[in-house]
Amino acid sequence: MYEKDYFIAICNYNIWMCQYGKKIEALKPEPSNNAPVAFESATSFINMPVTIALADVEGQLNKAFPGLMYEDNNVEDDKIAMKVWKTAPIRLNEENGRLISVVPVKINAKVKYGTSAMGIDMYDTREFDLNAIVTFKSNVGLVNWKLNTETQIENLEWQESPTVTIAGKKVMITYVINPAIKLFKSKIETRLDQALSKAVDFKPQVLDALEKLSAPMLTSPQYEAWFALNPQELYVTDAKLGKNQVTMNMGLKCSMQTTIGQQPKSSFNRNAIVLKPVKEMPDKLNVVVAAVSTYESASKVLTKNFQGKEFSSGSRKVTVQKVDLWQKDNKMIIALDMTGSINGTIYLTGYPNYNAVTKEIYFDQMDYVLDTKSVLMRTANWLAEGMVLKKIQESCRYSIKPNLEEGRNNLLPYLKNYSPMPGIFINGKLGELDFEKVQLTNNAIIAFIKTSGTMDVKVDGMK
Question: Residues 382-400, buried b or exposed e (16+ Cβ, 10 A)?
Fold first, then answer.
């Protein structure tokens, strides 16, 4: 009875094996751990127009001249001592590309007048206050981050004629005052140039903007995708004055980096940025967009690709029920759960690549993992044949067009009037997408897609 039952059991097992196929047990390749992926793009040039309203310069200039503008207390050398104060805010405007400064002033003067005859000095000293409007005209340039001006007094308009009262009569002393004006003329012109240079030092604003731009931005929290800009050189054209504003065009030479994983450190060094004068400004932006596809999402897509498909050789056939993906040593591992003439999981390996026409990820040089191939050679040699493998490979592809759009859209908010700090505005456009390369991380397939375009970082004002 026992032998009969054993025989029946053996027959049932053989029937099951014929019906459901052989059970295979291939060794699973364990995933490996990689460091975060970083990719640095080709060199980019970012246009950085700098615009400073004369109203802002005016405000800074009035801070530099709070009151006293000139002082000379020695009356003996030229028979006049003089102090000059600003009595109202300095007003700036533009005329034919030159800077016009209008300064209301109060002049306190001590004038020594009289004669010397027969060895007897007959001098007297009088003190008086005068009001005038002084107009300065400046040529505008740019030197070492600062506004460079060459200023001259254009006009001095007395509110009243300089006089003193002698013996009850008013005596004109313009002949004394005007030479004195010439004495302080060069000093006050130099002082105004120094104040303008100090008032329009745009280096802090530009470096603050670059530091903000260099800070890595988290463009996709879900995939831990970071975008960073690494400044290399800064170019500038000469400053121009027009429409009541100072303008200059700057260009940033930089590289752009996309990183997946931990937040990268900023490489910005304020002290290393040097301003280089140029005649023309290059303007070409290269940006790398990271199209992130997690292994989980890619596995679901591939599983759908295999639904309803049979892979056969003669009367033997298998159906793929489930696909799983992971990486090992920079290769993709594709695990296929199969039923049919073979039951179990087999493992393939391949290198991910990108089809720019179909916008699909596919796998090059696909082959069975060595242990899987060894098992198939012993149990199911027909499945190890190249023809079946080729058919399987054709189903191992999936579109990343949605991922590309997602990666592109993650950057767009930073190109539409984005303001990382007051007075700084970023705008730009992106062109067509071009494939760069595919890299594997612990959790995802990253397709790096390069796109060109333009980018403006406008520095507006003296905030």
Answer: bbbeeebbeebbebbbbeb
- For every residue of 349-408, which 3-state class applies, written as one string? EEEEEEECCCCEEEEEEEEECHHHHHHHHHHCHHHHCHHHHHHHHHHCEEECHHHHHHHH
Is the pTM above the cut of 0.70? no
- Range(s) of the domain holding residue 104: 54-199
The structure tokens 């489930």 sit at: 322
CA 365 to each of CA 227, 293, 348, 381: distance values in angstroms, whole numbers, following the listed order: 32, 21, 10, 20
| Nearest-angstrom CA–CA distance, 128 and 375 | 112
Q: Within a domain: residue 162?
A: yes
Q: How many domains does the chain have?
A: 1
In a domain, 313, yes or no: no
What is the secondary structure of 272-318 as a DSSP string? G--EEE-SS----EEEEEEEEEEHHHHHHHHHHHHTT-EEEETTEEE
CATH number at residue 146: 3.15.10
Residue 360 lies in a domain: no
Residue with tokens 């010397």: 116
Q: What is the mean pLDDT of residues 405-415?
A: 80
pLDDT tens by residue, 81-135: 888 888 899 899 988 888 999 989 888 877 776 655 445 455 677 777 778 888 9
Percent residues over pLDDT 70 in the chain: 84
**In this structure, is residue 42 part of a structural domain?**
no
Question: Above 60 in pLDDT, residue 371?
Answer: yes
Whole-Å CA distances, 348 to 152, 319, 344, 368, 380: 81, 16, 13, 4, 15
**HSE toward the beta carbon, residue 232, CA cutoff 13 A:** 9
Q: Over the stretch 41-96, which tens digit does the pLDDT of each residue have? A: 677 888 888 888 888 888 888 887 788 887 888 877 767 788 888 889 989 998 88
Q: What is the pLDDT of residues 29-39, one digit of tens each?
A: 888 776 656 66
pLDDT bracket for residue 268 (50, 70, 90): confident
The DSSP result for 143-164, as a single string, is ETTEEEEEEEEEEEEESS--EE
